[in-house]
Amino acid sequence: MLLQMEQITKKYGDFTANEAINFSLREGEVHAIVGENGAGKTTLMRMLYGMEIPTSGSIAVRGKEVSFDSPRDAIANGIGMVHQHFMLFPSFTVAENIVIGTEPSSAIGFNRKQAVQQVKALSEKYGMPVPPEKKVSECALGTQQRMEILKVLYRGADIIVLDEPTAVLTPIEVKELLTAIKSLASQGKSIILITHKLHEVMEVADRITVLRNGKVTGTLNKTDTNIEELSRLMVGRELAPVIKQEPLQGKPVLKVRNLSLQGEGGKPVVDQVNFTVHAGEIVGIAGVSGNGQTELIQSICGLLPTHTGNISLLGTSLINKQPHQIRQAGLAHVPEDRYQWGSAKDRTVLDNGIMGFQRSKQKLGILHHKALRDMVAGWVKKFDIKTSSIHNTAQNLSGGNLQKLIVARELAQETPFLITAEPTRGVDIGAMEFIHDQLLAKRKEGGAILLVSSELSEVLKLSDRILVIYEGKIVGEVNGHEATEEAISLLMAGGGNNHE
Ligand SMILES: Nc1ncnc2c1ncn2[C@@H]1O[C@H](COP(=O)(O)OP(=O)(O)OP(=O)(O)O)[C@@H](O)[C@H]1O
Ligand SMILES: [Mg+2]
Predict the structure, then answer these.
(1) How far away, in angstroms, is 328 Cα from ligand 1 center?
(2) Rounded Cα gap, residues 417 and 257, in angstroms
(3) What is the pLDDT of residues 406-443, one digit of tens each?
(4) How many CA atoms lie within 13 A of 77 on its CB side?
(5) CATH topology identical between 3-235 and 252-492
(6) CA distances from 174 to 147, 177, 456, 487, 490 (A)
(7) 151-187 pLDDT, tens per residue?
(8) Which is the closest atom of ligand 1 to the Cα of 15?
(9) Closest Cα to atom 10, ligand 1: which residue?
(10) Under CATH, what is the fold of the domain 252-492?
(11) Ligand 1 neighbours by CB, cut-off 6 Å
């Protein structure tokens, strides 16, 4: 066996994140790890990569027992890890990022030419194209992902851990990555893949280990299992299909008129966009990420000030308003990047939970500390946010649990309008179902919701109307109750007519 982890336990104080876990990896195997948010997947892999030290248990690589104090030790043993969040230097080139730390040098310092050649050779060998001389900041997320993998390969890894690699990728990029994973395995590399997407598991994995509450609930051969069994092992119950209710369209809440935004180089990133979101309605925006969705959201929220056109919320113009004034006018926002915009990771769950509430509760005269604490504790229970307490720091939460906290906070604002971008990114299938139910409940109470998601299945499941965005333009509108995945995909690829 290439890798054998035996009886691995990891405790944080009284909390057991991993309990007596047995996990093994064969040469040339793709082994998927699945499980609910907070089940302990990342923790297990952080121990393999030398970022955490097990409380007890043993790890053997190629039959030899090892103990790692740092990722450096793990790398020296041929183990590489690509994290849930990329760790690249945006202002460096692709080649520089890949070779950094182990770069080829000559008498006059860093050998750029050689680095570029090595990166080219590596990317050809494994069929993962990257532009070596481009800056990272100019690369799409799919390219950045390939860079992270190439970086690991450059360091000679033959055990490659990928922690939710497809969470931020477009459907085409996901396909490319899955192909690359298969090709790596066929060339003798061994892959550990953490993902919440069970169809990806069924496509590439040889074996699957399911974790639940820090324990292994099963290790299965892909050929002996199916999506239903895996979900049951993960969640411990059957999932119910969502039944979409009748349209409830009420009065207009958000109006966007002729909105345009210039990007770098004068090319519009949002181009003459017009739409309305009504009370009791979920309007979905579908599109391959990078087609202006981010800029559209940021201009509505007042985070990108310079634009032409008009945006109004319940009749109040939002132009030239500060983000907090826009929130007061009735907007809540689940941002697409929970680390950059959604949370302060060195603050507590409580602090993160009450962000934005201080103002409204202060209106009552005093800050009701107890009321705020009770409120956040209530969400922890309702959304099943796995945390030792509300005084835990946010960075100790698993990715999906932090996402649940942000969604809970924004829904609790009970605003007439909610923008929710990638609301279920990184959350497990049970939590996804729960969040979808909560969004539908808000709609039923008359809330107006703008849903921006790169998950087409999510947009189709929840939206009353779907607007397709392509190169900053709304290129089509379809009825969410009748739309098909094929029709929307076609529009997403640019095959549509202008809207309005
Ligand atoms: N440094 C830490 N201190 C305290 N608790 C921690 C720490 N790191 C992780 N945990 C806890 O351990 C549990 C497992 O976390 P982990 O990140 O492994 O989950 P996960 O399975 O990767 O979940 P997700 O799917 O949401 O990424 C979580 O409840 C988390 O809060
Ligand atoms: Mg994780």
Answers:
(1) 34
(2) 17
(3) 999 999 999 999 999 999 988 999 889 999 999 999 99
(4) 22
(5) yes
(6) 15, 5, 13, 20, 17
(7) 999 999 999 999 999 887 877 888 889 999 999 999 9
(8) 5
(9) 396
(10) Rossmann fold (3.40.50)
(11) 12, 15, 17, 35, 37-43, 386-387, 396-401, 428
- What is the rounded distance in angstroms from the CA atom of residue 157 to the CA atom of residue 164? 19
pLDDT at site 365:
47
Asked whether the beta carbons of 261 and 299 are under 8 A apart, the reply is yes
* Ligand 1, pocket-test mutation among 398, 406, 407, most atoms within 8 A of CB: 398
- Phi and psi at residue 267, in whole multiples of 5°? -80, 130
Rounded to two decimals, the pTM is 0.83
Domain positions in the chain: 3-235, 252-492
Q: Which residue's alpha carbon is at the smallest distance from atom 18 of ligand 1?
A: 40
Q: Which CATH architecture does the domain made up of 3-235 adopt? A: 3-Layer(aba) Sandwich (3.40)
One-letter amino acid at 212 equals R
Higher pLDDT, 321 or 241: 321
For 55-104, write each residue's pLDDT tens digit. Answer: 999 999 999 999 999 999 999 999 999 987 778 888 899 999 998 776 66
Q: Which atom of ligand 1 is nearest to the CA of 13?
A: 4
Residue whose C-alpha is closest to residue 154's, from 121, 180, 176, 106: 121
